[in-house]
Design the sequence.
C-alpha cells in the first residue's frame, strides 16, 4: 500500500524536503565558524517557546521562532560585548531553555506526548499551518543564505578581514544567529530538538570529504540533506520507524559511505602517484656480470 497517498504523509515529505534543503545551507556557515553545536543550545531555547505556545493556545512553531531568535541575539550580543564567553552563555541558555520548556508544557493542558513530539520530532503530525510556516521560513532562509553567500563566507572565514573590507560584520553575525534560530525552529518538527544539529552539520561534513571550494561544498551538502530527508521519510513510512531518527541515520550513513569512498579514491591516487615517481630498479648483479 502506498502510504504517500495520505495527506499527512505528503505533508511530512514536503516538510522534510524543505528542511533537508535549508538546514545545510545555514549549517555550512556554522561549521566554518566552529559553532556546530549551537543548534542544540537554540533548540532548547525554542522548547521554551513551544511550551509558551501550548500554554497560551498559540502556534507553538511561531512562538518558538520568537523565543529562539531572542536567544540567538542574546548569545551574539554576549559574545560580542559581554565578559562571559560564548560557550558559557550558550550553556546557560541551554539549561534554562529546556527547564523553562518542560515547566511551561507541564503548566499547559498538553500531554507528555506533545513534549516528546518536539523533543524527538513528529513529522507525521505536521499540520497544514505548520507546513505553511516551514515553507515560508525555509524559502526565506534559503534565499538569504544564497544571495548573501560571499559576505557571509567572508565573515565566517576571517572576521577581521571582513571588517577591514567594509562589511557590516555585526549585522551579518546577527543574521547568522537569527538564521540559526529559524533553522532550528523549522527543523524541530522534522528531527526534534535533540537531533537538530545533526541535520545542519552531518551533510556539510559529508560534502567536505569530496569537495574543495565553498560553493561546491554548499551545493553538495544541500543535495545530501535533500536526499537524507526524502530517504529518511521513505524508510520511516516503509519500516514504521520514527521519521526524525530515520532522517538522521540516513544522513550519518551517507557520511560514512562518502567518507569511505573518498578515502579509497585518495589511496588509489597516492598509489598511482607513487608508481609514476618510483625510479626504475637497478639491474641484478648477475646481469651486470654477463654484460
Sequence:
Amino acid at each position: 500500500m502506498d502510504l504517500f497517498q495520505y495527506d499527512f504523509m505528503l505533508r511530512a515529505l514536503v516538510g522534510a524536503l524543505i528542511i533537508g534543503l535549508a538546514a545545510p545551507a545555514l549549517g555550512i556557515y556554522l561549521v566554518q565558524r566552529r559553532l556546530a553545536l549551537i543548534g542544540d543550545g537554540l533548540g532548547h531555547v525554542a522548547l521554551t517557546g513551544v511550551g509558551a505556545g501550548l500554554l497560551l493556545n498559540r502556534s507553538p512553531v511561531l512562538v518558538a521562532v520568537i523565543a529562539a531568535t531572542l536567544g540567538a541575539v542574546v548569545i551574539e550580543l554576549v559574545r560580542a560585548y559581554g565578559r562571559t564567553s560564548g560557550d558559557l552563555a550558550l550553556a546557560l541558555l541551554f539549561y534554562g531553555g529546556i527547564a523553562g520548556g518542560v515547566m511551561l508544557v507541564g503548566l499547559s493542558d498538553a500531554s507528555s506526548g506533545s513534549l516528546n513530539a518536539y523533543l524527538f520530532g513528529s513529522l507525521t503530525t505536521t499540520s497544514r499551518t505548520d507546513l505553511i510556516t516551514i515553507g515560508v521560513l525555509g524559502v526565506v532562509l534559503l534565499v538569504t543564505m544564497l544571495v548573501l553567500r560571499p559576505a557571509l563566507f567572508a565573515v565566517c572565514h576571517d572576521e577581521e578581514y571582513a571588517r577591514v573590507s567594509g562589511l557590516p560584520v555585526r549585522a551579518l553575525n546577527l543574521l547568522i544567529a537569527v538564521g540559526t534560530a529559524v533553522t532550528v525552529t523549522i527543523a524541530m518538527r522534522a528531527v526534534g530538538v535533540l537531533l537538530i544539529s545533526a541535520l545542519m552539520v552531518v551533510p556539510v561534513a559529508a560534502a567536505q570529504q569530496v569537495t574543495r571550494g565553498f560553493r561546491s561544498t554548499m551545493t553538495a551538502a544541500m543535495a545530501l540533506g535533500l536526499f537524507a530527508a526524502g530517504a529518511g521519510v521513505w524508510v520511516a513510512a516503509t519500516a514504521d520507524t520514527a521519521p526524525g531518527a530515520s532522517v538522521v541515520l540516513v544522513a550519518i550513513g551517507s557520511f560514512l559511505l562518502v567518507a569511505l569512498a573518498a578515502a579509497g579514491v585518495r589511496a588509489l591516487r597516492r598509489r598511482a602517484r607513487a608508481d609514476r615517481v618510483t625510479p626504475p630498479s637497478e639491474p641484478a648483479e648477475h646481469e651486470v656480470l654477463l654484460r
